[in-house]
Amino acid sequence: MTAILQAHALGMQYGRRPALTDCTLNIPPGHVVGLVGPNGAGKSTLLKLACGLLNPTSGSISVLGNTPGSGPGQLARVGFVAQDAPVYTNLSIADHLRLGARLNPRWDRGFAERRIAQLDLDPKQKAGKLSGGQRAQLALTVAAGKRPELLILDEPVAGLDPLARREFLKNLTKSAAENGTSVILSSHLISDLERVCDYLIVLVSSRVRLAGKVDQLIAAHHRIVCTLRDPDALPTGLEVISAEHTDRHSTFVVRTDTPLPAEDWAAQPLSMEDLVLTYIGTADPGLRPATQGSQTALDSEAGR
Protein backbone atom coordinates (compact mmCIF):
# COMPACT_ATOMS: atom_id res chain seq x y z
CA MET A 1 0.00 0.00 0.00
CA THR A 2 1.25 3.46 -0.92
CA ALA A 3 1.52 5.76 2.10
CA ILE A 4 -0.66 8.84 1.98
CA LEU A 5 2.28 10.79 3.41
CA GLN A 6 5.86 9.64 3.79
CA ALA A 7 8.59 11.89 5.18
CA HIS A 8 12.21 11.19 6.00
CA ALA A 9 14.32 13.59 8.07
CA LEU A 10 12.06 16.37 6.79
CA GLY A 11 13.06 19.85 7.86
CA MET A 12 11.83 23.39 7.23
CA GLN A 13 13.34 26.66 8.43
CA TYR A 14 12.14 30.24 8.17
CA GLY A 15 15.42 32.11 8.31
CA ARG A 16 17.15 30.75 11.41
CA ARG A 17 13.95 29.55 13.05
CA PRO A 18 13.18 25.83 12.65
CA ALA A 19 9.53 25.17 11.84
CA LEU A 20 9.97 21.43 11.36
CA THR A 21 12.95 19.30 12.44
CA ASP A 22 13.93 15.74 11.51
CA CYS A 23 10.34 14.72 10.76
CA THR A 24 10.00 11.05 9.78
CA LEU A 25 6.52 9.67 9.13
CA ASN A 26 4.85 6.86 7.20
CA ILE A 27 1.06 7.22 7.26
CA PRO A 28 -0.87 4.31 5.74
CA PRO A 29 -3.96 4.98 3.60
CA GLY A 30 -7.57 4.76 4.72
CA HIS A 31 -7.28 6.76 7.93
CA VAL A 32 -8.64 9.98 9.39
CA VAL A 33 -5.45 11.41 10.88
CA GLY A 34 -5.48 13.88 13.77
CA LEU A 35 -2.52 16.29 13.78
CA VAL A 36 -2.15 18.03 17.14
CA GLY A 37 0.31 20.23 18.97
CA PRO A 38 0.66 23.69 20.52
CA ASN A 39 0.90 26.88 18.49
CA GLY A 40 4.18 27.06 16.60
CA ALA A 41 4.74 23.31 16.72
CA GLY A 42 4.92 23.00 12.92
CA LYS A 43 1.44 21.68 12.06
CA SER A 44 0.61 24.20 9.33
CA THR A 45 4.12 23.94 7.93
CA LEU A 46 3.81 20.16 7.57
CA LEU A 47 0.44 20.51 5.83
CA LYS A 48 1.73 23.17 3.45
CA LEU A 49 4.69 20.95 2.59
CA ALA A 50 2.26 18.11 1.90
CA CYS A 51 0.27 20.35 -0.47
CA GLY A 52 3.34 21.61 -2.30
CA LEU A 53 2.86 25.19 -1.08
CA LEU A 54 6.33 25.06 0.51
CA ASN A 55 9.56 23.30 -0.44
CA PRO A 56 11.49 21.63 2.39
CA THR A 57 14.83 22.93 3.61
CA SER A 58 16.08 19.39 4.18
CA GLY A 59 14.95 15.80 3.94
CA SER A 60 12.19 14.48 1.71
CA ILE A 61 8.41 14.19 1.55
CA SER A 62 6.08 12.32 -0.75
CA VAL A 63 2.28 12.33 -0.85
CA LEU A 64 0.46 9.40 -2.45
CA GLY A 65 3.83 8.26 -3.78
CA ASN A 66 4.69 11.51 -5.58
CA THR A 67 6.30 14.88 -4.95
CA PRO A 68 3.71 17.31 -3.52
CA GLY A 69 2.39 19.82 -6.07
CA SER A 70 4.41 18.21 -8.86
CA GLY A 71 1.80 18.75 -11.57
CA PRO A 72 -1.91 18.88 -12.43
CA GLY A 73 -2.34 15.15 -11.88
CA GLN A 74 -0.94 15.31 -8.36
CA LEU A 75 -2.90 18.45 -7.52
CA ALA A 76 -6.12 16.70 -8.57
CA ARG A 77 -5.46 13.90 -6.06
CA VAL A 78 -5.21 16.21 -3.02
CA GLY A 79 -7.86 18.52 -1.56
CA PHE A 80 -6.84 21.29 0.84
CA VAL A 81 -8.85 23.58 3.11
CA ALA A 82 -6.68 26.25 4.72
CA GLN A 83 -7.03 27.55 8.25
CA ASP A 84 -9.50 30.35 7.46
CA ALA A 85 -11.63 28.18 5.10
CA PRO A 86 -11.12 30.65 2.22
CA VAL A 87 -13.98 31.32 -0.18
CA TYR A 88 -14.61 34.05 -2.74
CA THR A 89 -16.88 36.48 -0.93
CA ASN A 90 -18.34 38.05 -4.10
CA LEU A 91 -19.19 34.69 -5.69
CA SER A 92 -22.36 32.74 -4.99
CA ILE A 93 -22.38 29.15 -3.80
CA ALA A 94 -23.39 28.09 -7.32
CA ASP A 95 -20.43 30.07 -8.72
CA HIS A 96 -18.09 28.12 -6.44
CA LEU A 97 -19.44 24.83 -7.73
CA ARG A 98 -19.11 25.95 -11.36
CA LEU A 99 -15.53 27.05 -10.65
CA GLY A 100 -14.80 23.70 -9.03
CA ALA A 101 -16.09 21.93 -12.13
CA ARG A 102 -13.86 23.96 -14.44
CA LEU A 103 -10.70 23.55 -12.35
CA ASN A 104 -10.94 19.89 -11.36
CA PRO A 105 -10.96 17.07 -13.93
CA ARG A 106 -12.65 14.57 -11.56
CA TRP A 107 -15.27 17.00 -10.28
CA ASP A 108 -18.39 15.28 -8.96
CA ARG A 109 -21.21 17.69 -9.73
CA GLY A 110 -23.93 15.47 -8.30
CA PHE A 111 -22.11 15.05 -4.98
CA ALA A 112 -21.46 18.79 -4.61
CA GLU A 113 -25.04 19.78 -5.44
CA ARG A 114 -26.51 17.12 -3.13
CA ARG A 115 -24.28 18.22 -0.29
CA ILE A 116 -25.27 21.88 -0.67
CA ALA A 117 -28.94 20.79 -0.61
CA GLN A 118 -28.38 18.60 2.47
CA LEU A 119 -26.81 21.59 4.24
CA ASP A 120 -29.89 23.65 3.35
CA LEU A 121 -27.79 26.32 1.65
CA ASP A 122 -29.20 28.56 -1.09
CA PRO A 123 -27.02 28.21 -4.23
CA LYS A 124 -27.76 31.86 -5.05
CA GLN A 125 -26.38 33.08 -1.72
CA LYS A 126 -23.13 35.07 -1.89
CA ALA A 127 -20.32 33.41 0.09
CA GLY A 128 -19.60 36.68 1.87
CA LYS A 129 -23.06 36.55 3.46
CA LEU A 130 -22.61 33.07 4.92
CA SER A 131 -21.87 32.35 8.58
CA GLY A 132 -18.46 31.01 9.58
CA GLY A 133 -19.81 27.48 9.79
CA GLN A 134 -21.49 27.73 6.40
CA ARG A 135 -18.30 29.07 4.78
CA ALA A 136 -16.36 26.14 6.26
CA GLN A 137 -18.96 23.71 4.89
CA LEU A 138 -18.78 25.34 1.45
CA ALA A 139 -14.96 25.09 1.45
CA LEU A 140 -15.19 21.42 2.47
CA THR A 141 -17.76 20.76 -0.28
CA VAL A 142 -15.50 22.25 -2.94
CA ALA A 143 -12.46 20.34 -1.65
CA ALA A 144 -14.35 17.04 -1.42
CA GLY A 145 -16.16 17.59 -4.72
CA LYS A 146 -12.90 17.27 -6.62
CA ARG A 147 -12.89 13.63 -5.44
CA PRO A 148 -9.40 13.71 -3.91
CA GLU A 149 -7.63 10.64 -2.59
CA LEU A 150 -6.35 12.75 0.31
CA LEU A 151 -8.15 15.63 2.01
CA ILE A 152 -5.97 17.98 4.09
CA LEU A 153 -7.69 20.31 6.56
CA ASP A 154 -5.82 22.95 8.60
CA GLU A 155 -7.83 23.97 11.69
CA PRO A 156 -11.12 23.96 9.74
CA VAL A 157 -13.34 24.17 12.84
CA ALA A 158 -11.32 26.66 14.89
CA GLY A 159 -13.83 29.51 14.57
CA LEU A 160 -17.01 27.48 14.83
CA ASP A 161 -19.38 27.08 17.77
CA PRO A 162 -19.70 23.58 19.29
CA LEU A 163 -22.85 22.66 17.35
CA ALA A 164 -21.38 23.83 14.03
CA ARG A 165 -18.14 21.95 14.80
CA ARG A 166 -20.03 18.73 15.44
CA GLU A 167 -22.03 19.12 12.22
CA PHE A 168 -18.87 19.84 10.22
CA LEU A 169 -17.08 16.77 11.59
CA LYS A 170 -20.12 14.56 11.03
CA ASN A 171 -20.26 15.65 7.39
CA LEU A 172 -16.50 15.21 7.05
CA THR A 173 -16.51 11.60 8.24
CA LYS A 174 -19.58 10.79 6.13
CA SER A 175 -17.95 12.24 3.02
CA ALA A 176 -14.65 10.44 3.69
CA ALA A 177 -16.43 7.10 4.20
CA GLU A 178 -18.59 7.44 1.09
CA ASN A 179 -15.70 8.43 -1.14
CA GLY A 180 -12.91 6.30 0.37
CA THR A 181 -10.90 9.45 1.07
CA SER A 182 -8.00 9.61 3.53
CA VAL A 183 -8.00 12.73 5.73
CA ILE A 184 -5.35 14.66 7.65
CA LEU A 185 -7.02 17.05 10.09
CA SER A 186 -5.15 19.59 12.19
CA SER A 187 -6.85 20.91 15.31
CA HIS A 188 -6.31 22.13 18.88
CA LEU A 189 -9.65 20.62 19.89
CA ILE A 190 -8.64 17.15 21.02
CA SER A 191 -12.17 16.18 22.09
CA ASP A 192 -13.36 16.78 18.53
CA LEU A 193 -10.53 14.72 17.05
CA GLU A 194 -11.30 11.92 19.49
CA ARG A 195 -14.69 11.49 17.80
CA VAL A 196 -13.39 11.10 14.25
CA CYS A 197 -9.69 10.20 14.15
CA ASP A 198 -8.20 6.71 14.14
CA TYR A 199 -4.57 7.81 13.60
CA LEU A 200 -2.67 10.38 15.65
CA ILE A 201 0.40 12.59 15.17
CA VAL A 202 1.67 14.81 17.98
CA LEU A 203 4.05 17.65 17.06
CA VAL A 204 5.87 19.67 19.72
CA SER A 205 8.62 22.25 19.20
CA SER A 206 8.92 21.37 15.50
CA ARG A 207 9.44 17.64 16.17
CA VAL A 208 7.25 14.55 15.94
CA ARG A 209 6.73 13.24 19.46
CA LEU A 210 4.23 10.49 18.75
CA ALA A 211 2.62 8.87 15.70
CA GLY A 212 0.52 5.78 15.14
CA LYS A 213 -2.92 4.22 15.14
CA VAL A 214 -4.97 5.53 18.03
CA ASP A 215 -6.08 2.13 19.34
CA GLN A 216 -2.52 0.80 19.33
CA LEU A 217 -1.13 3.91 21.03
CA ILE A 218 -3.77 3.82 23.77
CA ALA A 219 -3.21 0.08 24.32
CA ALA A 220 0.53 0.68 24.73
CA HIS A 221 0.23 3.46 27.35
CA HIS A 222 -0.82 3.20 31.00
CA ARG A 223 -1.04 5.47 34.02
CA ILE A 224 0.19 3.70 37.15
CA VAL A 225 -0.10 4.96 40.72
CA CYS A 226 2.13 3.38 43.35
CA THR A 227 4.01 4.05 46.55
CA LEU A 228 6.78 6.60 46.21
CA ARG A 229 9.60 5.24 44.05
CA ASP A 230 12.26 6.22 41.60
CA PRO A 231 11.51 5.61 37.89
CA ASP A 232 14.62 3.40 37.73
CA ALA A 233 12.95 1.04 40.20
CA LEU A 234 10.18 0.18 37.73
CA PRO A 235 10.35 -3.15 35.88
CA THR A 236 12.42 -3.30 32.72
CA GLY A 237 10.54 -2.81 29.48
CA LEU A 238 8.58 0.20 30.73
CA GLU A 239 9.39 3.50 29.02
CA VAL A 240 8.57 6.33 31.42
CA ILE A 241 6.87 9.19 29.57
CA SER A 242 6.02 11.32 32.61
CA ALA A 243 6.45 11.13 36.37
CA GLU A 244 4.81 13.02 39.24
CA HIS A 245 5.49 12.55 42.95
CA THR A 246 3.90 13.47 46.26
CA ASP A 247 5.25 12.71 49.74
CA ARG A 248 3.84 9.17 49.59
CA HIS A 249 2.90 8.31 46.02
CA SER A 250 4.26 8.34 42.49
CA THR A 251 2.23 8.58 39.32
CA PHE A 252 3.81 7.48 36.05
CA VAL A 253 2.63 7.38 32.46
CA VAL A 254 4.48 4.50 30.87
CA ARG A 255 4.69 2.89 27.48
CA THR A 256 5.19 -0.81 26.88
CA ASP A 257 4.82 -3.03 23.83
CA THR A 258 4.06 -6.05 26.06
CA PRO A 259 1.29 -6.56 28.65
CA LEU A 260 1.72 -4.46 31.77
CA PRO A 261 3.23 -6.65 34.52
CA ALA A 262 1.32 -7.23 37.76
CA GLU A 263 2.80 -5.11 40.55
CA ASP A 264 1.69 -3.31 43.69
CA TRP A 265 0.17 -0.43 41.77
CA ALA A 266 -3.16 0.78 40.40
CA ALA A 267 -3.19 0.87 36.59
CA GLN A 268 -5.50 3.10 34.56
CA PRO A 269 -6.07 3.45 30.79
CA LEU A 270 -5.49 6.79 29.06
CA SER A 271 -7.84 8.63 26.73
CA MET A 272 -6.56 10.27 23.56
CA GLU A 273 -6.66 13.62 25.36
CA ASP A 274 -4.61 12.21 28.27
CA LEU A 275 -2.09 10.84 25.78
CA VAL A 276 -1.72 14.08 23.83
CA LEU A 277 -1.42 16.29 26.91
CA THR A 278 1.15 13.97 28.45
CA TYR A 279 3.43 14.14 25.42
CA ILE A 280 2.95 17.87 24.97
CA GLY A 281 3.59 18.52 28.68
CA THR A 282 6.78 16.45 28.89
CA ALA A 283 8.36 17.24 25.52
CA ASP A 284 11.94 18.46 25.58
CA PRO A 285 13.08 19.98 22.27
CA GLY A 286 16.55 18.57 22.86
CA LEU A 287 15.38 14.97 23.13
CA ARG A 288 15.29 12.43 20.33
CA PRO A 289 11.70 12.37 19.01
CA ALA A 290 9.79 9.69 20.91
CA THR A 291 8.16 8.33 17.79
CA GLN A 292 11.44 7.30 16.13
CA GLY A 293 11.97 3.60 16.57
CA SER A 294 8.43 3.07 17.87
CA GLN A 295 6.47 3.84 14.73
CA THR A 296 8.10 0.99 12.84
CA ALA A 297 6.07 -1.56 14.77
CA LEU A 298 2.91 0.50 14.58
CA ASP A 299 3.14 0.86 10.84
CA SER A 300 4.27 -2.67 10.02
CA GLU A 301 0.85 -3.34 8.51
CA ALA A 302 1.54 -0.60 5.98
CA GLY A 303 4.57 -2.51 4.71
CA ARG A 304 7.17 -0.15 6.07
Automatic annotation (TrEMBL):
SMART domains (UniProt xref): AAA
Molecular functions per Gene Ontology: ATP binding; ATP hydrolysis activity
Domain ABC transporter as annotated: residue spans: 5-230
UniProt keyword terms in alphabetical order: ATP-binding, Nucleotide-binding, Transport
Record carries keyword Transport: yes
Pfam family for this entry, one: ABC_tran
Nucleotide-binding among keywords: yes
InterPro entries: AAA+_ATPase, ABC_transporter-like_ATP-bd, ABC_Transporter_VariousFunc, P-loop_NTPase
PANTHER family listed in its UniProt record: ABC TRANSPORTER ATP-BINDING PROTEIN ALBC-RELATED
Name of this protein: ABC transporter ATP-binding protein
Originating species: Actinocrinis puniceicyclus
